[in-house]
Amino acid sequence: MPFTRRTVVRAGGGAAAALAVGNAAPAEAAPAVAAPTTPTAPGPKAAGQELPLRTDTTTQGDILAGFRKDQACLFLIRFGEVDAARGWLRALLPELSSTEQVAQFNTRFSRARRLRSGADPTTMSALWTGLSLTHAGLGHLAQADPFPAVARGGTAEAFRDGPAARAERLGDTGTSAPESWLFGAAADGVHAVLTLASDTPDVLSQVAARHRDALQGAGAEVVFRQDAATLPGALRGHEHFGFLDAISQPGVRGFHPADAAGTGVEGKPGTRLLPAGEFIVGQERVGQRPAGLPAWATGGSFQVVRRLAQDVPGWWSQARVLLKQLQKSGAAPADADVRWLAARFVGRWPGGAPVATCPMAEKPVPPGADAGNDFDFHDDPDGLTTPLFAHIRKTSPRGGLVTRPGRPPLAASALDSRRIIRRGIPYGPPHRDDSSPTPRGLVFVSYQADLVEQFEFIARQWGNNEGFPPGRQPQPGADTVIGTSSPVAFESASPSGGRATTLDFQRFVRTEGAVYAFTPSIPTLRALAGGSLDTAIEVHPGTVLRPGDTLDAGAVRLRLENDGDLTLRAEDGRTLWSAGTAGSGVDALFAADGELSVRDAAGKPLWSSRTAGAPGARLLVRPSGDAVVLRDGRAVWSAPTPS
């Protein structure tokens, strides 16, 4: 067995979390699982590039590396008595899978797969475990509010409210309304999401039973259990409508090797490389924006879980009806089959090839090869090739988005802060022509550092917004895969230049449950198991504050005023401390060397904390009423406040 050894899981508590890296437990009537033998082997690294996030042992592995298993089980949990819940968490901690563990296994697995011309290696397997907590779950374990203050309109508010309270903005109305959900309708109904992922159903079944027993022993209730699995045979990697899924994922700086230009992922043309802070709180974000979140969020990511039921025969039947309408009007070729139109609804052919690069017929993608992301929509502003309502265009407009007819298109980089990482997996059996209406669909899972500016923005401003892209008559319509019911405008060429045929598109994907959770770092979970949650607002190295940016710790607020002064204000608005840079300050930087400074328009420091030379230092705005720079836990600077 290349790269592997035998590892076992005991049937009781305390089993290995990342079997792939050798965290073995005593054997007691347990399934055997193969695992790599070398836990310190490095991940892929381009020449001269360090990829520190690949060796991160503190972040959970599904966020950046991805569990990517054929079998998955999600337990949606409600805790009982707090001491029992903390005890359960302490027992679970050794099982949680880190980024390093998952990345190492995935690297070996991908290498072996390439050697087998795209076929999965049969001698390698692993079991992964992840844990996320809702706002109510964090509060229950900490016995305190997770946020010292909640800004209106921000991600903390969205996380606290939960998706049921925000259903209208997410398009969850009608048959998708929370009243009919299987889980998540009550904001405090779910405390945690436990994710188990395995290569084999037998292993997953036995481990899931052990976790179920452990939860029951801790007085916790499994509110809902969601089993899921990749589809078999030729549908492997596809969702139930038959299209290859999760093709276009963002690259992450510090995790994926950069190409020669430094803007994309090596070996994946068209895949942009984004700052890790768009997905992991505490890393640098696009534009060095502040996260404005408590210290407990550092090293973690907001998780969205949605159960999306798919009416497969209904969706395809509608496509056939609409194709006949288009052919009758001359907007579609007379010899086009239903796949031609369905590909335009999605923006890709079933095998993954983009319509943008092969509009008339599908080009087969060899097994194991990249389906293709090296395209944008600069040359198709009106959607004559890839319709403006196509799923991949509504959820990720790429380069070429025209915000108003006649204006130049936006560069792809302008949309970098709107990306999410998706980890979905189908549930239910494939649809057959003679099959009964068995529940089937997609377990949608995404990770992002900001619920409002990433996931909710995509759903509200793009996917379900019939008027996006703006300024067009008739309006483009909603996303024709996951959007709400709406008329859509099918643009086609005509002798006079172009025409739009309006199609009445009905919704055939229904939301049956949704949860907002947070996937904390392993150190944060360890602290929570002891009843501790650090709610000080953390300003991460590399963060830039611009006029109006406010970091609110409840009792005090660190703010860069509109006049350029950095101030610490009390909750009642009184100024407790000022840097004295009013009228000349432009921004404030907390540098990687531990120095906080206010800079002028030329980037020259006007005021400094004089704490340079302290890499790893932390800047905290604390609910106790001060702002401090800590080095090794000791304050090396603090904003002087009245006693």
- Described by its quaternary structure, the protein is single chain
Beta-strand content bin: 15-25%
Structural class: alpha+beta
- Given as residue ranges, the uncertain stretches (5+ residues, pLDDT < 50) are 1-43
How many separate domains make up the residues? 3
Task: Give the overall pLDDT as a whole number.
Answer: 91
The biggest beta sheet reads: 5 strands, antiparallel
The helix tally amounts to 12
Distance between the termini: 67 Å
Estimated helix fraction: 10-25%
The general outline is: globular
Radius of gyration: 25 Å
Q: Can you count the beta strands?
A: 28
Structure description:
By secondary structure, the protein is an alpha+beta fold. It folds into three domains: 1-39 and 53-134 and 195-229, no CATH class; 308-514, no CATH class; 537-638, Agglutinin, subunit A, CATH 2.90.10.10. It contains twelve helices and 28 strands. The chain has helices at 61-64, 82-92, 99-115, 135-142, 155-161, 167-170, 201-217, 312-329, 338-346, 391-395, 451-463, 522-529, and strands at residues 4-8, 32-36, 71-78, 127-133, 192-198, 221-229, 251-252, 264-265, 268-274, 301-310, 421-422, 425-427, 441-448, 486-492, 499-505, 509-519, 537-539, 543-545, 550-552, 556-560, 566-570, 575-578, 587-590, 596-599, 605-608, 618-622, 626-631, 634-638. Strands 10, 11, 12, 13 and 16 form a five-stranded antiparallel sheet that branches. Strands 4-5-3-6 form a four-stranded antiparallel sheet. A hairpin with a 5-residue loop joins strand 20 (556-560) and strand 21. Helix 2 (82-92) packs antiparallel against helix 12 (522-529). The longest helix has 18 residues, at 312-329. It is globular, with a radius of gyration of 25 Å. The chain starts with a strand and ends in a 5-residue tail after the last strand.
